[in-house]
Amino acid sequence: MNDIVVPTLGESVTEATVATWFKKVGDQVSIDEMLCELETDKVAIEVPSAFSGTLVEIIASEGSIVGLNAVLGKISNQVSENSKNDQISSNLNETTKYQEKKLDVENAPAAKKIMAENNINERDITGSGKEGRILKEDVKNFIEDNKFPKNKEPEKPNTVEFKGQELRASQGQVEEVKRMSRLRQTIAERLKSAQNTAAILTTYNEIDMTEVMAIRQTFKDEFELKHSVKLGFMSFFIKACCHALKEIPEVNAEIRKTDIVYKNFVHMGVAVGTENGLVVPVIRNADELSFASLEIKLNELGHRARNGELTMSEMAGGTFTISNGGVYGSLMSSPILNPPQSGILGMHKIQERPIALSGEIVIRPMMYLALSYDHRIVDGKGAVTFLVRVKEALEDPRRLLMDL
Fold first, then answer.
1. Domain, as residue range, for 66
2. Radius of gyration of the chain measured on its C-alpha atoms
3. Spatial contact of 58 and 21, defined as CB atoms under 8 Å apart
4. Domains in the chain: how many in total?
5. How far apart are the first and last CA of the chain?
6. pLDDT tens for each residue of 324-373
């Protein structure tokens, strides 16, 4: 009898929630076949089988909280001849199927489960994973794009379920109860902890995006042709923030007990909204990267974040964060610090507004910026100066070239 144990979850992560079992008791499994999915504070981890045999027991059911090296289930290495023949036949069929699709890897188990639940043929979906691997996000996008009808469970009035099913009241009203994911619990705890611990203040300014938009319009085609990635606005903001952090280093610092730790590098966190919550992948040494390198990293990390593929190391060690609420239409907001960081910049929607310029009223594409900072480290003068430097660099990007 072989134990299925919780794998290493990442630095400082000590427990996880069993999100989904892809196999049930009695199923045959082979080496490296995915058994279940665990959900930690930040990422989902698929647990592969280290043995071939039969799944004879599931110890940690879906929704259970498990610690490091906890036993999830047991696999028997006793396989009957009929089971072996069935498994060989199944493997041959699987091999043929993937040869037809020209794939060298299996589709994500979570994706296969959703396809089975909705009677979707995998040949109808184009996978975005490595070598065409179909990911969970691909299936969900397919369902959304095609308004694919989901299988519905028979209605159970006057019953309560706590795994996403409906809660029906006697008056015929409907509620839906879902277990809060570990990611959502962690987001809630960290944000509330930041408010309780740091002395958070926010200062605001606005920038004229005319010059940045003009540069982007002029060079976007040539930039994409040379670097095989689109030129966006975020790389300009990262560059401007790195420039300002050199002048105001306390915004890039953190408190450790009674010490202030100043960072001589910039590991830039960029907040990404996913269907499971907000995650913040980190671009290492962002202050040393070119516009092209930043856009490539942004594109890669954003894709991995939306597909739930980020590792713990890719979200650790950030020294400053940028959050873009403008992609959702936000005109102004006050972002909350990402502890232990002391500063976070909030970007917002670009909107044409009348402004006074050289004694005339003109229409310009304007954006409100918000800098939330920890007043325990950063004084008001430093915070305002930081935001002014970002404004100056974006309104006249030549200052970045001249290091002004």
1. 2-125
2. 25
3. yes
4. 2
5. 67
6. 998 888 999 999 998 899 999 999 999 999 999 989 999 999 999 999 99
Report the interhelical angle of 109-117 vs 136-146 (nearest 10°).
30
Residues 6+ apart with CB under 8 A from 112: 22, 106, 122, 134
Q: Out of 270-279, 280-289, 331-340, pick the least confident.
A: 270-279
pLDDT, one tens digit per residue, over 143-156 is 877 765 545 454 54
In sequence order, the 6+-apart residues with CB closer than 8 A to the CB of 284 are: 267, 317
Specify if 390 maps to a domain: yes
Of the candidates 345, 298, 296, the one whose C-alpha atom is nearest the C-alpha of residue 320 is 345
Does residue 153 belong to any structural domain of this protein?
A: no
CA 133 to chain centre: 19
| Token pair in block for residue 331 | 């005109």
Does 104 qualify as catalytic in the annotation?
no
pTM: 0.63
* Rounded CA separation 274/269 (Å): 15
The encoded tokens of residue 46 equal 């698929």
Our CA angle for 122, 127, 132, nearest 5°, is: 105
- Please check whether residue 142 lies inside any domain of the structure: no
Instruction: Report the b/e string of 153-171 with b at 16+ CB within 10 A.
Output: eeeeeeeeeeeeeeebeee
Q: Which of 94, 125, 156 is the last residue of a domain?
A: 125
For residue 243, the surrounding DSSP H or E stretch is: helix 234-247
Using CA atoms of 234, 239, 244, 246 in order, give the dihedral in degrees to the nearest 10.
140
How far is C-alpha 33 from the chain's CA centre? 25
Catalytic annotation on 375? yes
Q: Any idea what DSSP says for residue 339?
A: T
Asked whether residue 156 is domain-assigned, the answer is no
The active-site residue, picked from 208, 287, 379, 396, is 379
Helix (H) or strand (E) holding 96: helix 81-101
Tokens of 392: 């100056």
Q: Which of 259, 375, 396, 403 is catalytic?
A: 375
Rama region for 42: left / alpha / beta (φ>0; ψ in -120 to 50; rest): alpha
Distance CA(271)–CA(154), nearest Å, equals 40
Per DSSP, what are the bridge partners of residue 345?
322, 371
Half-sphere exposure (CA, 13 Å, Cβ side) for 36?
28
Q: Which two tokens stand for residue 150?
A: 């989901």
